[in-house]
Each structure stands twice: as C-alpha cells, then as structure tokens.
Design brief:
Distance between the termini: 34 Å
Number of domains: 2
Number of strands: 17
CATH class of the largest domain: Alpha Beta
Number of helices: 10
CATH topology of the largest domain: Aminopeptidase
Radius of gyration: 23 Å
Strand content: 25-35%
Structural class: alpha+beta
Oligomer: single chain
Strand order of the largest sheet: 1-2-4-3-5-17-6-16
Order of helices and strands: HHEEEHEHHEEEEEHEEEHEEEHEHEH
Helix content: 25-40%
Length: 373
C-alpha cells in the first residue's frame, strides 16, 4: 500500500478541532524531520507549520496550502482506522489534504526544482479561521509566496478527476448566532410573559424574505438557520431562545446587504415582542476567487495529462478561508475527485484513497513544470 495512504489513515484517527491540533502538528513534524534537511527550513505557527524548500536557482516562490483540523462529528464509517477521538472526525478530507501535501513535500525534498517552495499546514480552517491571522503573522510574511495553490476533496467526482474554474469558486460566508431574551413564566399565564419561542419562530420565518426580496435575483445568497434552542420544560414559557446559522453569498455586496437586513429584522422583532436580542456574526470567510491567468495555465496543463479527467466546475456556496490568501496572493484552488457515496461533513464520508497518489503525481508534475521555467 502507498505510504501516504498509511499516513492518511494515521491522521484520520486523530482529528482535532481548530487551534487544538497538537497531536496532528507533532505527527507532521515527526515525518518532516525524516526527510533530507539540506534544503528544508521549518517554522511553527500556533498549531500549524510552515515549510520552506530552497530552490536551485530561485526566481520566485510557489506556495501550497493544506488545512489540518477536523470537525465536531461522531464518525460512523466503521472503518478499522476510524477516529479514536470521541466526537471528532476528519469529515471534510483534511486527512487527505495533509497526506497529499506530505507526498509533494517528500518528492521535492528529493528532487529540488529551480524555484523556492513554501508549504503551509494551516490550522483552524473549519473554525474559528486560521488563514486570516496566519497571513498577518511574521512567520508567513517572511516567506510569503508569489503564487499559491490548494485543493479540496470532492466526493461527487470520481478519483482521477480534477475540477475548477477561473474567477469565483467558493462563496463569501459568515456564521450567525442570535440570542433572544424575554420574560419566562407559567404556560397557563402567557399574558404575563414574553415568549421567546414565538419571537424566534417569527424571526426565522422573516429571514426567508432576505434572499427572495432583498438580494439581486442575478446574484445568489443562502441564509440558513441550522439550530434552534429554547426553553427548559413543556409547561414553562421560554425566557431565552438561541438561533445558530450561516449566511453565504456569491458577492461581498450581497453579504453586506444580508447582514444589514438581519439587523433590521431583529429591530422589528424586538419592537413586536417587547424583547431584547443580541447578534454575533462569528467568523466569516472571504470568497475563493481563482486568479484567471493562473487558473487558465493550470487548466491547460491538467487537460494535457492522460491520467487526469478535467471538469469545468461551477461556483459553490461552500466556504473556505483560503479565500483570505487568494485575496492577497495570485493563485487558485481546485476540486479533487474522491468518489464517496456520502458528502462533505457527513459521518460516513469515505473517500477513495486512490485519489491520494493521483494528486501527488499531478501536483509534483505541475510544480516541476512551473519551477523550471
């Protein structure tokens, strides 16, 4: 079996949440220290790692970013290498991403190219967000790439497939947490209370008007409430209610509009139900916008490979904090087909491991072509 499949399985067993990836970081460091060190420099940034590989005759620095955190999901795959961390799972493919990145690092440690390479093992992609503070760090600023690349697994495409497009690939995203506070009391005396189940329910209904009546029909947006909690027992009117959700848009302008409408609707709810509300927008991710020139060059290379099936993808409402890197550095992201019956963030996600070798081989060939020009 391919050693990077073994590595993927090792990493799959130890998923950790954002900025808690201590075992993951140590595993990666242990492996990186086994490679020839004559051209490698390592830096730690919080629970992440930055690796610089010196080129033979550098004229630029090519970057590769991988995310390393897991999700708060209880795994249900029944695989022999399932997560040993209760309530944690690599359900978004970051175990794949890391093993692929290590494969690429290994190749270039043994086969250097002219240009410098920087590999970023970034924590906290799933939250609270690692890319934005990493971009501001002195560690990365010292080794800032001139162009940068990343991938994300795509369960809907079979192994051997690569998909991307120039321009917008992933949406702008924002978390949404809203608390309502009223007055509780006995269910038999509703007139003496301020019922926050009713207030929150009305608000969820009103949110549905944002996309249909406030966003340009030629633009796109999603406003979703995924969790609602209120009350303590069936015969007590709830004094507090909490909503948790997400906003996703294809343009920064639509995001600003959606957030403004949420605030306006909340003021109406406060007046209508004589309650108080508090909103927290949590972490927000900037859109993933693929540099057209960089992406066109990548697509032409991918189409010329006999072992790759290239697919022109559409933009998606997926969120990715790699967008903060692409905001500052020319680059692009692509989907890697992994053919899983279950999708991203599902407890039974089981990607095809054949995609690991496919990705390592493709990326090393592409970087070799770039780095020898």
């Amino acid at each position: 079996m391919n050693r990077f499949v073994d590595i993927r399985r090792d990493l799959h067993q130890i998923p950790e949440l954002g900025f808690e990836e201590e075992k993951t970081q140590q595993y990666l460091l242990n492996y990186l220290h086994t490679l020839p060190q004559d051209r490698i420099e390592l830096k730690k940034w919080r629970t992440g790692i930055i690796v610089k590989m010196k080129g033979l005759k550098p004229s630029k620095t090519i970057g590769w970013r991988t995310d390393i955190d897991g999700l708060p999901i209880t795994e249900k795959t029944d695989l022999p290498f399932s997560s040993i961390h209760e309530g944690r799972m690599h359900a978004c493919g970051h175990d794949f991403h890391m093993s692929i990145a290590l494969g690429v690092v290994t190749h270039f440690a043994e086969n250097p190219i002219n240009d410098d390479l920087v590999f970023i093992f970034q924590p906290a992609e799933e939250g609270p967000g690692g890319a934005e503070p990493l971009m501001a760090s002195k560690e990365l600023k010292a080794w800032m790439p001139d162009e940068i690349y990343a991938l994300h697994i795509a369960p809907e495409h079979p192994a051997g497939t690569i998909a991307t497009k120039p321009g917008l690939l992933f949406a702008n995203t924002s978390e949404l947490f809203i608390d309502f506070k009223g007055k509780g009391g006995h269910a038999a005396y509703p007139h003496e209370t301020k019922d926050m189940v009713v207030a929150a329910s009305y608000f969820v209904t009103q949110l549905q008007s944002i996309v249909s009546r406030n966003v340009d029909p030629l633009d796109s947006a999603v406003v979703t409430i995924g969790k609602m909690t209120a009350g303590t027992v069936q015969n007590v009117i709830a004094e507090h209610a909490r909503l948790e959700g997400t906003i996703r848009t294809l343009s920064p302008e639509a995001m600003m509009k959606a957030k403004a409408r949420v605030q306006a609707l909340l003021k109406g709810i406060e007046a209508s139900f004589e309650c108080e509300s508090e909103i927290d927008n949590g972490s927000g991710y900037y859109q993933v916008f693929n540099d057209p020139a960089v992406t066109d060059r990548f697509i032409q290379f991918a189409k010329a490979q006999t072992d790759i099936q290239f697919v022109h993808s559409r933009e998606a409402m997926t969120g990715e904090d790699f967008g903060f890197m692409l905001k500052e550095i020319p680059g692009m992201m692509f989907w890697l087909g992994v053919g899983s019956e279950y999708g991203l963030h599902h407890a039974k996600l089981n990607p095809d491991e054949a995609a690991i070798e496919t990705a390592i081989s493709f990326i090393t060939r592409y970087f070799t072509a770039l780095g020898h020009k």
